[in-house]
Amino acid sequence: MAIVLHSSPLLWTRLAAMVFSCVALSVAVHGARVLHGTGDWCIFCWAFSFGGTLLVILVELFGLQTRAPVSWKNFPITFACYAALLCLSASIIFPLYFLKGSTGQSDVRDYRIVSTVFSCLATIAYISEVSISKARPGEVAGYMATAPGLMKVCETFVACIIFVFISDPVLYDRHDALKYCMAVYCICFILSAAIILLCIGECTGCLPFSFARFLSAYALLAVALYLSAAIIWPIFNFDPKHGGTKDRPYVCSSSYGLCPWDKCMTVAVLSAVNFILYLADLIYSTRLVFVNA
Asked: Does residue 9 have a cis bond before it (omega within 30 degrees)?
């Protein structure tokens, strides 16, 4: 089997991202003394990013793109976008939990600082890979290389973070309106994930309707749903008239990590973020439909 090696900015960017994520992972496992839970998440982010990038490099190195069971126009950039978001989350969470207020051994702290620095470098490398791989105006590329495709990745990632905060402890079982918000998050996540899988599997042509028009219709529905959730969630969590708490409880300042009130606020902010993402997605998707028409 012939090895195909084409030196390019994209290849060097991937190699840099792989090395940076590997160093962050190795240093954290070796001497950072990460705890279970939050530490496991950061380890997963770096391990997933390193393993996936290694796979992408090997496939292209041995010229196996045509034999891969996925669309190679869509898979690498989709993975790079997820890896960038994962490393970004680890770069924020790891220092907050393991560096902030750390008074332990100096060598352990040094390991944690090194992991944080290389996690940030990996984030920059993956963002650079996405920037290099994304479609340019007039260029023929896969859907996931376009702005709406990359937004789908961000939308599903934000939804996953919402699920983490909303489920531990359960924050949506206090009122039917909050259960409606949870339904909105689930419906939009499932549909966005299905669109990503259809594009990676090159199954969009099997649909009995126009995929482009479906994207516009779904984006419009998601904007309406997330707008309602972005309004309802804060009202029923922070308005005293509906059983909410406007002021941050005193116990939150002395608790480790995020208290339930903090998590409710985080979900409210992330709901607004996803609403903005879906609104931009709607604008881009509608533009694609009319340009193609």
From this structure: no
Q: Is the dihedral of CA 222, 224, 225, 230 positive or negative?
A: positive
Number of helical H runs and strand E runs in the chain? 9, 0
Tell me which of 96, 122, 145 is where a domain ends.
145
| pLDDT tens-digit readout, 203-237 | 887 878 888 888 889 999 999 999 999 999 999 99
CA–CA separation, 230 vs 224, rounded Å? 10
CA 260 to CA 252: how far, in whole Å? 8
Whether 155 and 265 map to the same domain: the answer is yes
pLDDT in tens, 226-279: 999 999 999 999 988 877 788 888 777 766 667 888 889 999 999 999 999 999
Specify the residue for token string 């116990």: 251
Residues 113 and 173 in one domain: no
Q: How many angstroms separate the CA atoms of 94 and 80, rounded?
A: 20
Please identify, among 145, 176, 208, the residue that sits at the C-terminal boundary of a domain.
145
pLDDT attached to residue 293: 44
